Amino acid sequence: MSTQKLSQVLEKALSRNSTSLKNQNKAAEITQTLINSGLKPFKTNPSLLSNLNSNIINLIISNPNLPLHSCTIFFNFLKTNFSLASQKPNLKTHLTFILRLYKDGKFKEIKEVLKFIIFDDNLRYPVEEMFSLVGFECNDSNFLQKFCDFFFRVCVDNKMFEEASGAFDYMERMGFKIDEGSCILYLIALRKCGKGDSLLGFFRRMIESGVEISVYSMTIVIDGLCNRGEVEKGRELMNEMVSKGVMANVITYNTILNAYVKTKDFEVVSEVLRLMEEEKVEYNAATYTVLIEYFECVGKHEEAEKMFDEMRERRVEADVHLYTSMISWQCRRRNIKRAFALFDQLNEKGLVPNAHVYGALIDGLCKTGQMEAAQMLVNDMQSQGIVVNQVVVNTLLHGYCKKGMMDDALRLLAVMEKKGFEPDVFTYNIMASGMSRLKRHGEAKRWLFMMVEKQVIPNVVNFTTLIHIHCKEGNIVEAKRLFQQMQRRGERPNTITYNALIDGYTKKGEMKDAYKLRNEMEAKGRIPDIYTYTSLVHGECNYGKVDEAMKLFNEMCQKGLVPNVVTYTAIISGLCKDGRSDEAFRLYNEMISMGHMPDQRVYSSLVGSLYTTGVNSSGCN
DNA sequence: GTAGGGTTAG
């Protein structure tokens, strides 16, 4: 190094020292003022802060003699005072303030400052650079680790997954201990944002980075896999983790059990139950809820009751979830008395009913047409301080619509809208189908058009309703157009959608197109049900092709589908019109033996057939 | 900071 250069360096160092000294003096002066008199002097005389620079600010903020409270007030003053725009705290100042908060254990406040940094265009830096700056400014490795973790969590809280991922990478590269709790928040946020496909990938990264894995994060990932229909993958993951020493608990098992219950596959359900027994995992209320749900779903009511009894024998306390499920099933079976008995039981146990429980009960009353009682229950829940939410309003509306009480539905809707209720996809569909049921097709369509105007995106159900309306109006062209439009919009028609359209075609006598759709739905994995067959049977009968109708009728029975009163009516009247009263009476008897009550149409058909064919000899009883 | 519950269309 030349002498000249050395002298320059020395000069610079000296001048730095002198500025540094000047800064220190200024900082000390301001700090003292803040301690003695707070912000007031600076507000009345802003020139006191005229020579402020970031070094001075940092010296003030990091001064442990200045109480944190004063420190915060000063920091916020600098941030918000427009006349001090040139001294607005920069990233380094913010980091200094965070360090100060950290030393005082103010973690919640740190997160707020971090959030501010993340959303401020002038303060936001690439993750890497910011962390390096923290490491450079502060030699405390513990703080840097904690800082990274805070930053990661704040990104997660604000759904900034890429930034969070960057923070994770940095922590991994630096060999920091990564907190599982933070990773769990990341997993939950992913799931909440519909990014379930990223769960497993991130979980693998956690394992590779040496994050201590607990049953919590494992279960979240398994749940995510189950929700995507990848139950087997979930089970494999569980086995893999068990071999690594992470034991599954009752919640993990419930998660897998619940996924299998939805497939209604008794074999796999029993297998999980056996596994739970082997592993000595005791059932809890959630296990019983899932099992009761399963048995009710497959129509084994007695088994479901047995589960409820077993739970009490094993002294597992029922909770609100379980009662809601039980009540809902009683209501579906129209056993309102039992539903209310369970409701009383819940209250006697000191459990607090919530909107879900009330929702189930109100639905039960609506299903049985007891609208006054339903309204009373709504008042009751309100008096308990429970908010009448979207579901309850929709349930009530549906109750009124089903009874054709459209004026009451409209009145309720108007009242609720005044209270801030906003109709959703359900509401519009309930109103439209209510109108359509009364053949008020114009109004029905208006409700569905209104939802589009209100920017509510129609789903497959809404499209199906509209298609159905057009079919009822005989406008099969428009129905078909909508059917294609919905698919272009990414809504996949389900069995019910196909049924609506098939019914439209059969009513027009366009049987060829109806069969074409039936084949198409099968090819797409949508299974024809009794409604599909009933429409086809009806269509064939209407056009005198009773042999074709009988073929369909036998085909559906072979497939294990049980004809209902409508199917029987269609085929019986078809046979009668064709003069085949023997066959008609045979099916009539079959229908009676199946426990179906014939309606007026069946009688008229049969009586009519007696007139045309003379005396029947089949011995109808 | 892990699981289970109430609403819609033929």
UniProtKB/TrEMBL annotation:
UniProtKB keywords: Repeat
Keyword Repeat: yes
Ranges: PPR repeats: 214-248, 249-283, 284-318, 319-353, 354-388, 389-423, 424-458, 459-493, 494-528, 529-563, 564-598
A Pfam family: PPR_3
Top-rank lineage group of the source organism: Eukaryota
Protein family (similarity comment): Belongs to the PPR family. P subfamily.
UniProt xrefs under NCBIfam families: PPR
Protein name per the record: Pentatricopeptide repeat-containing protein At2g32630
Protein's organism: Durio zibethinus (Durian)
Species classification: Eukaryota, Viridiplantae, Streptophyta, Embryophyta, Tracheophyta
